[in-house]
Amino acid sequence: MEKYEVKQIDNLLNLNLDSLIKESKKDGFRFIERLVVDYTNGNNTFSHSGEGLFGVFSEDGVLVAIGGLNRDPFSNEQSIGRLRRFYVSKNYRRKGIGILLVTKIIDEAKRYYKTLVLHTDTEQADKFYISLGFSKDNLYPNSSHFMELKS
User: Fold this and answer.
1) Radius of gyration over alpha carbons of the chain, in Å?
2) Cβ(99)–Cβ(41) under 8 Å?
3) Cβ pair 59, 35 in contact under 8 A
4) Of the residues 63, 125, 128, 138, which has the fewest C-beta atoms closer than 10 A?
5) Does the pLDDT at position 151 exceed 90?
């Protein structure tokens, strides 16, 4: 079985995301492309306190999944984090990669936030996040799911 490693991404521009962008757009998702645009223009570099961008890399160094943590930009509460730009390459789904990455992001979020929120509108993602302990509700602006964090 191939081994995977979750790493914090210090500079997104040093990575080749072409295949993830192409694949995600083919699936109807533009948020990986937006991730790169926002990172490049400085709108979101995941560099503030309590933020981070993480990737899962295969043994040969290929980026197979990505996800970020920001302070929730849709809330005035400093205690709410947001899971953003989460994507797992199709060939690596159902292998525990997504769980590995979300677990890392949750662990990181616990250090800074009381609540972690996210937005998704797909049934598959809804089931995935519910299975990891998120609750489905629109209690928070522009969010479909939330998790109360315990340190």
Assistant:
1) 15
2) no
3) no
4) 138
5) no
User: Which residues are paired to 6 by β-bridges?
Assistant: 56
**Alpha-carbon distance values, 104 to 9, 34, 49, 84 (Å):** 13, 22, 16, 13
Per the CB < 8 A criterion, the answer to whether 102 and 132 are in contact is: yes
Looking up tokens 């199709």 gives 90
Average pLDDT over residues 99-123: 96
Per the structure, the complete domain to which residue 140 belongs is given by 4-148
CA 43, CA 80: separation in Å to the nearest integer?
19
- Report the predicted TM-score, pTM, of the whole model to 2 decimal places: 0.93
Which parts of 77-144 are beta strand (E)? 80-88, 115-118, 135-136
Is 55 strand, coil or helix?
Answer: strand
Of 87, 78, 82, which is closest to residue 119 (Cα–Cα)?
Answer: 82
74, 142 contact by CB (below 8 A): yes
Q: How many structural domains compose the chain?
A: 1
Could you tell me the CATH number of the domain that includes residue 103? 3.40.630.30
Q: What token pair was written down for 116?
A: 């972690």
What pLDDT digit, counting tens, does each position of 87-107 carry?
Answer: 999 888 888 999 999 999 999
pLDDT 10s digits, 37-57? 999 999 999 999 999 999 999
